[in-house]
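Training component of the fellowship. As part of building independent skills, the fellow (R.M.) carried out the full modelling exercise for a liganded target. The chosen ligand was (2R)-2,3-dihydroxypropanoic acid. The inputs are recorded below so that the supervisory panel can assess the work.
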Amino acid sequence: MTAKPKVWVSRPLFPDVLARLAEHFDVQAEAIERKHGPDELKARLADVDGALVGLADRVDASVLEGARRLKVVANLGVGHNNLDLDALTRAGVLASNTPEVLTESVADFAWALMLAAARRVGAAERWLRAGQWPGSNMRFDDWLGLDVHGRTLGILGMGRIGQGIARRGFGFDMRVLYHNRTRLPEAVERECHAALVSRDELLRQADFLVLVLPFTPENRHAIGALELSRMKRSAVLVNVARGGIVDDAALAAALRSGQLAAAGLDVFEGEPSVHPDLLSLENVVLSPHIASASEETRRAMANLAVDNVIAALGFGESAGKPPTPLNPAVLSRATSKA
Ligand code: DGY
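Fellow's submitted model of the complex:
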C-alpha cells in the first residue's frame, strides 16, 4: 500500500474540516495558535505535499528551499501578502486563497465599525461598565455622535468587498463614491449606486472612508498624514483591509488633534501589536482582525482551503482543478514533481 500524501495545517481548524483532509492525507495539524518563524516553516514544509497556512505564516523563497515534495499552499484568507507568489510559482507550488466566501461578512463588519465609531459605541460601553452612568441625571447632550444615514460613503478599493459595502449604503440613504484602479462596469456601478471619483476627491468628500485595498508595496501608507489632512475634520476612517495601508502613528495624531473625528480599525501595522497611541484614544474602535470571523464564513474559508488542497493533490471530484488558484500557470506546467 502506498503511503498517503502528507499535509501540514499551521493553525487549529474545525475538526470536521480536518476530517475531510484526513480522508485522503496523513494530516499534521497544529493544536495551538502561534506564529511560525522562517526556520520552523522551512522545516515543516520540507516534508509535506501540501500545507494550509494562515496570514501570519510568511511563505517565501527561503522557506521553500528543500520543500521538494510540496505541491500546494492554501492560504486561509483572501488577502495573500504573506505569500511570495513569484517564489511559489518558480518552485512549481500552487497557491490558493479564499475569495468570495467572506465578502458579505467582511462588508457587514466594515459597517459594524462605521456605526460603532460614528455613534461611539465602544467608549460608551466602557463608560457604562465602569459604573459611570448616572441614570436619569445623564445629560441630554451627552454621548452625541455622528449620523451615518444620508452622509457620503467613500470606498477606496472597489473589489467584491468594496461593492458589498457600497450596496449596504443604499439602505442608509447614502451617496456612495469610490476610487479604484479601474472603473467598474456601468451595470455594477448602478447596482452599487456608486460613482467613480479621483482619489483626492474621495478624500475630500467622504464622511466615511472605508479602505478595502489589497496590501502591496505601493499601498503601504496609502493613508498617511498628508491624506488625513485632506479629509473632513468630521470624517470617520475605517480599515478592514490590511495593517500598513494606514500610517497608524499619523492616524493616532490626527484622531488626537481633532483632524479626524473617529476611526474603526480591524487591522494594524505589526499585528498583533497595536500602536500605543491608538490604544489610549477613545475615538477609535479597535478589533483584532476579525472581519471575516462569523461561524459560517470561517467554516466556508476553511472548507475552501481544503477543497484547494484536495484538488491540487489530485483527489476528489475536482482533481487537478483547484477552485481558487492564485498562480494557475503552475497547473498547466509539466513539473518534475508529478
Ligand atoms: C483575509 O481573508 O484576508 C482576512 O483578512 C482574514 O480574515
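The panel noted the following from the submitted structure. The longest strand covers residues 152-156. The CA atoms of residues 115 and 148 lie 7 Å apart.
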